[in-house]
Amino acid sequence: MDFRLTSEQSMMRDSVRRMVDADIEPVLQASDRTQALGKEQLLHIFRKLADFGLMAPRLPEAAGGGGFSMLDYGIMFEQIPPSVSMSLVSQDGCITRLFAECDEAQRARFLPGLIAGELIGCTGSTEPGTGSDPRGITTKVTRDGDMLVLNGAKMWVTNISVCDLVIVTCLDRTEDPAGQNIVKVVVERSRSPFEAREIDAIGLQQGLLGEAVFDNCRVPMENMIRSRSGGTQVLKSSWAVNRPLLGLQAVHLAQRAFDAALDYARTRTQFGKPIGARQLVQKSLSDIETAIRTSRLLCYDALATIDAGGPADGTSAMAKRYAQMACTEAVWQAMNVLGAMGLSREARLEEYYRDIRMIPIPDGTNEILSLIHGRELTGLEAIRA
């Protein structure tokens, strides 16, 4: 068992970090930090990420993807600011689901532009009245001649306000008016316009979180996905990867907060010496780094378990839940090290704290994740009867 990164993994990590410093941070810094990025700004960033194969990290190289192990992907993903990496998760998830479920003709139509970072995609599954229960959706698709007609609403969808296409999970009413089969429909914005707006939230304010309404939205028949795996299986399997990735977003934010707190502790003096020489400050710094390291290792372990083909639902749920909780406390402790400066916008720790509060909700709340983990431990179902 070796916990050290290989030389290749270290090189990938450092290359992505340099790219972030050179090509992503300047875009974020030049923009209003309280407003969502524009579509052209996101496309500029996506094209840079595409150069590293990060638009489609889960696809094999023969299909145009990065062909990465999920552990290698996570190591690189951790370097990307969460306001951007949340959009990357949405794009990557959309591409992965299209590749897994579409036929060859649909793949040829939808995937090249997404993989190249020239188009923006997302997936709409959550609804105003349906969160953690994907079987409770009410959005439906019916048939009108050679067209599909989509009606319903989706919420908490990253990239929806600027997307070129969205995969919409819905009830199939094309043959049976009372049908309960779940299908997916690809809605291309240029061909099938719909209403969408951004949601103003506490954190990740440069991100692109939004909602959409499909009101008799007419979609070509060839855009229905006849999934080989059926139902929500592909969606659920993608969540297993997403959860430790979101945990690594928390690690990214806690690491930034720790770096700021450590620098402050070394330079800020009180009563004749740096505050870093005080016992309680050293304890806080020790607690912060311990939270970061344990969170990172749990997330890496979950991704390595997926790579090895092991049961990963519980491990992934545990990784995200623990990392988010531990790193939230770590950011809070870092703010305390800075004292009054920790409350200032200038120091940015208050921004990291607001950002990290966004992470518990996507791809499973802490409460749902504890039940997923518990189900894997006991073999007993606590969510459904």
From TrEMBL:
Residues 231-376 form the Acyl-CoA dehydrogenase/oxidase C-terminal domain. The keyword Electron transport does not apply. Its cofactor is FAD. Keywords: FAD, Flavoprotein, Oxidoreductase. Transmembrane segments: none annotated. Its EC number is 1.3.99.-. Belongs to the acyl-CoA dehydrogenase family. This is Acyl-CoA dehydrogenase. The lineage of its organism: Bacteria, Pseudomonadati, Pseudomonadota, Betaproteobacteria, Burkholderiales.
